[in-house]
Every structure is written in C-alpha cells, then in structure tokens.
Design brief:
The protein is α/β, with parallel strands linked by helices. The chain has two domains: 228 residues, Phosphoenolpyruvate-binding domains (TIM Barrel), CATH 3.20.20.60; 56 residues, no CATH class. The protein is built from twelve helices and ten strands. An eight-stranded parallel β-barrel has the order 1-2-3-4-5-6-7-8, surrounded by five helices. α2 packs parallel to α3 and α11 crosses α12. The longest helix is centred in the last third of the chain and has 23 residues. It is globular. The relative contact order is 0.11. Bound molecules: coenzyme A and magnesium ion.
C-alpha cells in the first residue's frame, strides 16, 4: 500500500466520520484531500461509532486520494482512542485540532513515533485559538524539530473557533480576522509549510464563497478547508493559477532563456522589470500546473 504524496492543497473537504452517506460520497469527489473528522463534527456519544466507520471505510477499498483524519486533542481520552483508529487506517496525515503550542506538536510526534507510524504520515496543525495564533511561528518552527519527527507539513486556519474564542463577528472580507490569518500565512512560509484557509459556513451562498476563495488566494493561502461538496470546484479554480498567470510565467521563462539573458539577474520584459526570483516563481507555477493536469487525468 503506497501513501500518496501531497502535491495539491486547493480543496480540503471535511467529512464528519459519523455520516455514512457523506463517507461513501467522499470517495467519488474531486477534492485535493479529504479530512475525516472525529472532532467537532461528531458528538461525544457518537465518537466510538465514527471510529468504527473509518476503520470500515479504510478497510473496504482504501480511499484513492490524499486523506487525513482529524482527531480530538491527543491528551484526552477521546484523542487516545482516535490515535488507535489512525494507526489502523494509516491516512496520509493526522490533523491536530486547537494546537496552542510547540509541546502539543512534540507530544503528537512522539506518540506517532512510539507507535511505529510510518514517517510519511504527516501532521497538520489547526491554528484556531488565540494561543495558537500567538504561537504560530513557534509551532511552524517545530516542523524542523527532531522531536516532531519532521512530520509537520501544514497549518490550517480554523475560523469558527477563532471567532468564538475572540468575539470577532463574521463579516464579508473578514477585516478583523485578516491580521491573524496573515500572521499564520507568514509563520507557515517562514518554515516552508503549506497553509490552508478556513471554512465558509454558508454553503448555499456561492457568490460570497467565491469572493472568499479569491481573498484567500490573494492572501497567499494554498487552498481552503471545505464543508460541502458543492464548494470543491470553486476552490480548485481559485487556488489554481489563472490562464493569464500561466501565460505570464511562460513569457518570463522564455525571456530568461534567450542567449543574452543567461548572465543577467534582471531583465526588461515588455517595459517591466523582471528578476531572476520571478523566474523561480514562474517555474514553480508551471510545476504546479503539471500536478493539476496530472490530477485531472487520473480522475
Ligand atoms: N462530505 C461529503 N459529502 C457531503 C458533505 C461532506 N462534507 N456534505 C454533504 N455531503 C453530501 C450529502 O451526504 C448528500 O449526499 P447524497 O446526495 O448522497 O445524499 C449531498 O452531499 C448533498 O448534501 P446536502 O443535503 O446539500 O447537505 P446536508 O444537509 O446533508 O449537510 C452539512 C450539510 C453542513 C451538515 C454537511 O455538509 C456537513 O456535515 N459538512 C461538514 C461539516 C464538518 O465537517 N464540520 C467540521 C469542520 S468545520
Ligand atoms: Mg475547530
């Protein structure tokens, strides 16, 4: 059984592990990753049943794409039970909720290590508490810490918890949340981690959702956490490079490939300054497009 390497982060759909129909449907959807949730989407008295559902789901035919399991905090009894489910199911990643400090990451890394989880099983951390935002940089820095086994791969923002804990009201544009969202993006980028925007609750409001996808992409997020299948296509679109961006990347690569440009760090492209760092960006963008194309072909 091979684990899927995680290349695309545009759309991460949360699926309550208690919902049988949603679990079955999740195997047919074009999200870049599925997050099976044992935490907030499952009531305490239903958690045991939800864990059994996941064991059955992974046992039948293993889900094809990238999957994560969101556990309860691992220092709780529920989290301890969830860990057993994780070890049985072997998802690509374990999503830790409400991460507030580095110690939580270290403890999770140590638990996976002690239980012999493959090193390819990654940790993703939800940044969704005031403490988590304040410590985002230190938490992201734990990715290179041997005590986490180098497993930390991504930060995911939890906007509902953040609003609940701070008193920030929902609003279009998320003006008062943006500083904390940007702090999380910066922390992730400082340590080369992926970073994913939070959910949009009103899944019937396609216009508002599209606007928030566009904002998230402009803020530098790699993608968005989703709650409903109808949100997948727009996220995949908004977090993919636009046609203009692809054309621009090709033009930059072509310009730097000209014989006279080989020894130059800065060139003139149709009246605009382009630096070698833009060339690297252009190459990364086209590499991303290849991954997107490959995903489309295998669906
Ligand atoms: N993943 C997979 N399938 C889902 C889904 C999800 N997150 N949400 C809905 N579906 C499925 C439904 O099962 C239904 O499938 P069917 O046609 O086979 O019956 C179909 O999509 C249409 O669903 P719909 O009737 O529009 O929604 P709903 O009323 O069943 O569910 C929610 C609405 C919000 C309860 C549901 O989308 C949900 O639970 N989302 C995830 C919540 C979550 O994970 N929260 C924690 C993280 S913030
Ligand atoms: Mg939460």
């Amino acid at each position: 059984m091979t684990m899927t390497s995680i290349k695309l982060w545009r759309s991460l759909l949360s699926v309550p592990a208690i919902n049988q129909r949603a679990l079955q449907k999740s195997k047919t959807l074009a999200a870049d990753a599925i997050i099976y949730d044992l935490e907030d989407a499952v009531a305490p008295e239903k958690k045991a049943e939800a864990r059994e559902n996941l064991k059955r789901l992974y046992g039948e035919t293993r889900p094809q794409g990238v999957t994560a399991i969101r556990v309860n905090p691992l220092d709780t009894e529920a989290g301890n039970e969830d860990l057993k489910t994780v070890l049985a199911c072997r998802p690509d990643a374990v999503l830790l909720p409400k991460v507030g400090n580095v110690a939580t990451m270290e403890a999770a890394g140590a638990l996976l290590e002690q239980n012999g989880a493959a090193t390819r099983m990654k940790l993703w951390a939800m940044i969704e508490t005031p403490e988590g935002v304040v410590n985002a940089a230190a938490i992201a820095g734990a990715c290179s810490d041997v005590r986490t086994g180098g497993r930390l791969a991504a930060l995911i923002v939890g906007v509902n918890d953040l609003r609940a804990e701070t008193g920030v009201a929902p609003s279009p544009g998320r003006a008062y949340l943006v500083p904390w969202l940007m702090q999380t993006v910066l922390a992730a980028r400082a340590y080369g981690l992926h970073v994913v925007d939070g959910v949009y609750n009103d899944f019937a409001d396609h216009e508002g959702y599209a606007a928030e996808c566009a904002e998230g992409a402009a803020m530098g997020f790699d993608g968005k956490m989703l709650i409903h299948p109808s949100q997948i296509d727009a996220a995949n679109r908004h977090f993919s490079p636009s046609e203009d961006a692809v054309a621009e990347a090709r033009a930059i690569i072509a310009a730097f490939a000209k014989p006279g440009a080989a020894a130059l760090n800065v060139i003139d492209l149709d009246g605009r300054m382009v630096e070698r760092l833009h060339l690297e960006q252009a190459e990364a963008l086209l590499a991303g497009m290849v991954a997107i194309q490959t995903t489309k072909e295998t669906q």
